[in-house]
Structures are given as structure tokens and as C-alpha cells.
Amino acid sequence: MFIKNLILKNYRNYEYQEFNFCNGVNILTGDNAQGKTNCAEAIFYLCTGYSPRATRDKQVIKYGQDSAKIIGTATSSYGNVEVELSFYNNANKGIKINGVPIKKIGELMGNINSVFFNPGELKLIQESPEDRRRFMDISLSQMSKRYFYALQKYRKVLEQRNDLLKSNDKQTIYDTLSFWDEQLAVYAETIIKERLLFIEKLVPLAKKAHSYITGNSEEISISLEAQYLDEEDEFLQSPTSHLEKDVKKCLLLALTKRIEKDIALGYTSVGPHRDDIKIKINNEDVRLYGSQGQQRTSALSLKLAELEVFKNRFNEYPVLILDDAFSELDKSRRSRLLSYVDGVQTIITCTDVTEDMLTSSNIKVFNIKNGKIEE
Known about the structure:
CATH topology of the largest domain: Glutathione S-transferase Yfyf (Class Pi), Chain A, domain 2
CATH superfamily of the largest domain: RecF/RecN/SMC, N-terminal domain
Number of strands: 15
Number of helices: 11
Strand content: 15-25%
Strand order of the largest sheet: 2-1-4-5-6-7
Largest sheet: 6 strands, antiparallel
Oligomer: single chain
Structural class: alpha/beta
CATH class of the largest domain: Mainly Alpha
Shape: globular
Order of helices and strands: EEEHEEEEEHHHHEHHHEEHHEHEEE
Radius of gyration: 22 Å
Mean pLDDT: 91
Helix content: 40-55%
Low-confidence stretches: 234-240
């Protein structure tokens, strides 16, 4: 899969610009604040309907304008697809697939797949479990509409269960909580199973990528932390691998066990909304003990492994977006990274193009200045 064409209209600092990408390495270069990252963000927006930078859609509209537009054409083994996003100051964004308006953002997922990495992705390693759950959710939602819709429904039921837990009428809580628990567990089962399979596939691929980038000097290990998956062992005294467990039963047991705690807290204290990923380098927690370089390389390894998960699932690579990813990598790791993604359409943003970045036989360089491609 690769993006052939991208059009930006009144998007961020772009008035109008068209990009014609090659299916190899595309480098967007130029000084800071010229529009390189804006272009990278727009590509990711086309894939997911989500921005890694904007908290509200209308923030991407060029100052002084009422609307903005992103249009992208991509090709894959399934044919060509055109995705169009329209943004408005006073209305929700509009989405069209091949000219046909769609109402559900879930219908956008999977038309153009991408893996995005920029310095902000260090949150994946350094910050809260929410950032690591978001990594799984964005990736899995692109791969599986079933996962995306289960996640949406789970969040709605979770909100209703939490509202109930805040009630002052304890008898009503005890009488109706089991109904919400059952609903929660139905959608949670899909989420948990998909995450377990995702991590199982990710682990060997991340190990391979990390070993390659570091020159075999470090070993990465990754696991899904979901406390409720151990509940069944406590009751049955028969530990099994997480993939073999009745995850719905495990969660229901955990929810039942924590009823009094949840009532006291006023929210649901257990479930996939509290999952985490544990990442270690040479058996040490990289979040607590890793250097910034190790944390950056770990995050990058997860993203490269994600590439391969997409490839194994769809028999073609997604688009790889590396936004300012080279700024803190030494020459050796830059070269290894570029070698690793050979054969993947890659969008790179950087302030300077170095000689080691020009080794690909299929490469195109765009110099960006004030929201325009400078010839």
C-alpha cells in the first residue's frame, strides 16, 4: 500500500498544495515551522480520522478560513481508494470514501493504513498506561472494524456503569450492577482477545527490529499487563496461558470481587480500560531505568514491529510516517533504520538531509517553505 497523491486546502499553514509521492522514501525537508509535520499529520488523519497533535478537528483550519480539506489517493493490492476529509469551524468533519459520504468513522478505518512515529511517541514508553493502550487501540482499529466497534461500545457501557457506581442508592447498584457487568464483559472479550493476539505477534517482531537497530547489543521484552486475567487461576488453581483462558469469565470474576471497592471509588477499577504494556530492556523496566536513547529505540522498535504485523495480516505494508524521527538517532542507527524499512513507502520529515539518508534507489525529496513545495 502507498499514497500516490495528497492535496491540502487551507490546512494548517497550507493554502493549497499537492504532493505526488513515490512508493519508496519521500523526504520532506526544510526549516522548522514550515509545514513538514503538518503534511505528515494530514496523512495520518486520512488513515484514522484522528490527529496525533490536534485536540479538536477545527484546530487544523488555516487561520482566517472557514473550512479545510485533505484529499488523498492511495493504491493497494485491492485497487485505488480516495479518502477526503473536510473540516469546518461550525460543524463536524465530513468524510468521503471514493466520493461517497460516510457517517461512521469506523468505515474510514482500513482504507489507508499507516504507522506513525515522532518524538511525541516517547509517551508510549515514558508516560501513562493510557498512551500504551492508545498504541494498541489505533493499530487494532485500523486492522479490525470489529475491534473498533467493540471498543466504542465498551466505553459507552463503562460510562453507564461508572454513573451507576456514583449513585447514592446502594440497593439500586446491587440490583442492577450485574446487568452492566454482563454487557461490559461481552465487549471486553473482543478487546482483550484481540490485544492478546496482537502482543503475541508483536513480541518476536519487536525483538528482531530492536536487535537489528542496536546491533544486537540489547534485548527487548514486551508483555500485556491485565490483572483480571489471573482471577480464574485464583478460583480454579489451574494456571494457563492468557490466550487459553475464558477471558469473559475472568473479567466477570474480577468485577464481582471488586464490587465494594468500585462503589467506594465511584468508578470501575478493573478491565481492559486499565490494561498496560510492560516493556523491558535487558530485563530492566525501560520506563524507569532506560536512558532516553533506549526509550526512543524501544518506541521505534514497537512501531517497526507494528509494520510487520500489518504486513502479515494484509500481505502488504502500511505507509510508514517518520516525523522528525532522525533528530536524535546517530548515523549508525539512522542507516540501520532506513535499511530495515526498505520496500516500505516511508514519509520522513527532517530539517537536514544527510548523505546516509540518500542511499535508497527510490527516493523523492520535497523542500518545504511557508506551506509550499519549493522547486
